[in-house]
Amino acid sequence: MTAPRFLPCIKCLIAALVIAIAAALAFIYSGLYPVGADDHHTPLTYWALETLRERSVDRASSGIEVPADLDRSERLLAGGADYNDMCAGCHLKPGKDESDFTLGLNPAPPNLTQPHQGEEDLESRAQHRFWVIKHGIKASGMPAWGPNHDDERIWSMVAFLRRLPELSPEQYQVLTARGSAEAPHH
Amino acid sequence: MTYKTLRWLAVLPALILVLAVQAHEPSEHMEEAEKPKCSEMKDMDHAEMDMDDPVMQAMMKKCKQHMDKKDADSKESEHRHSESDDDATRKSQHDH
After folding, report:
1. Is the peptide bond before A107 cis (omega within 30 degrees of 0)?
2. Domain span at B81
3. Which residue numbers delimit the Cytochrome c domain (chain A) (predicted)?
4. Mutate to test the interface with A, among B1, B3, B12 (most CBs of A within 10 A)
5. Are B3 and B29 members of one domain?
6. Which of B12, B36, B54 is nearest residue A177 as measured by Cβ atoms?
7. Residue B30 CA to chain centroid, in angstroms?
8. Which domains does chain A have, with CATH numbers?
9. Are A102 and A90 in contact (CB under 8 A)?
10. Pairwise CA distance, residues A35 & A20, whole Å
11. pLDDT digits over A70-114, tens only?
């Protein structure tokens, strides 16, 4: 008849908890955790972080209303120029498949010139992207662009991202150039 | 826990700073007021362009000035363009 005595052992539980917290604190203060970006997480940590991110973005972005005019050419031009200025260093552009940022950041920025993998529909992908661009992702290199860019500008980048994987380097150059066309010399 | 959080507070601004510095590298700088390279478009076969495609519409808009100037006199057409850019898209959308 010893089993029942284990169940109400609240003192043991509290002691275990205190020890766990103390151990966690000792670990943090010890400096033993390798914080270098070139030190990779274990597969389990990657899975936990990725799942955490996906579930969180999914939930937070689910009510966002996607504008009906993401197809407009004006959006592509506005979003293209912004993308080239602010994002291409990390997320690449046609004809480029690595940069200092894709090599050095952990988690690495996804290559947005590649066709998107995953089975979510266009609508929720647009919601996700809008949310991530506006709010950024904590403890990764992805900044929040919301503080300095209004929603319209962000939607234009979302619109541009939809077409980015099919652009050739030449098309990309024309769409993203901020300057205006030069008259051909006669 | 606080240390970890604080660390990110320090790392993120640093990253953004690095990016700002990167944008001032000479090679990046050249791109700042980059002009669209429209000459490739000029050589395209107009019959094969899909004018319903927003990408094509956007490229046309970007290169309109360039393409028109092939046969129009510079000053007048430049003036016309600054006003008619919007009409042009609307028209091309209505065409279909």
Report:
1. yes
2. 35-96
3. 68-165
4. B12
5. yes
6. B36
7. 15
8. 43-176 (1.10.760.10)
9. yes
10. 22
11. 999 999 999 999 999 999 999 999 999 999 999 999 999 999 999
Same domain for B95 and B72: yes
Closest Cα partner for A77 from B57, B82, B24? B57
8 A C-beta contact, residue A160 and residue A81: no
Number of domains in chain B: 2
Tokens 């066309």 map to which residue?
A: A181
Residue A99, number of CB atoms within 10 A of its CB: 18
How confident is the model over B30-57, as pLDDT tens digits?
445 788 888 877 666 666 778 889 999 9
The answer to whether the CB of B58 falls within 8 A of the CB of A175 is: yes
Nearest residue to B28 via CA among A175, A170, A85:
A85
Instruction: List CB contacts of A124: < 8 A, sequence separation 6 or more.
Output: A58, A61, A62
Cα B72 to Cα B14, B65, B84, distances in angstroms:
51, 10, 15
Tell me, what's the ipTM?
A: 0.74
- Residues in A touching B39 (Cβ below 8 Å): 184
Residue listed under structure tokens 């980059």: B34
A49: which 2 tokens?
């972080």
